[in-house]
Amino acid sequence: MDLFKTLHIAASGMQAQGTRLRVIAENVANADSVSQTPGGVPYRRKLVSFGNALDRELGVETVRVRKVMTDKSEFSRSYEPGHPAADEDGYVLRPNVNTLIEMSDMREAQRSYEANLKAIEASRNMLQKTLQILS
Hints:
Elements: H1 3-29, E1 46-55, E2 60-70, E3 76-79, E4 91-94, H2 99-134
Antiparallel strand pairs: 1-2, 3-4
Helix pairs in contact: 1-2
């Protein structure tokens, strides 16, 4: 495989995982947020969907973020009748963000990002060695 194609594929993987890390960071930042209005809907967790994209110029498949979507799972509820965001029954809806899951996802995205970075470094080293041999 052409080393330039390898660089392009790994860079697209890094870009996709970078987007995933930003979405996870947003989820973690909003894990304790509640609605500003009584009985309102709190922050809803976001998820990243990946897909393949054909780069016709290079003739390779790369990874792209297909879309960022919201998690449709249920919100947790806590009984806090004095809270400003409580509904008429005294319950406050909490975001559907589990920080333990987010931290696991973050580690996975970080590892994938690092793997793509290592692939770029290896390709760069091979290109440098090739240039040294040719000169």
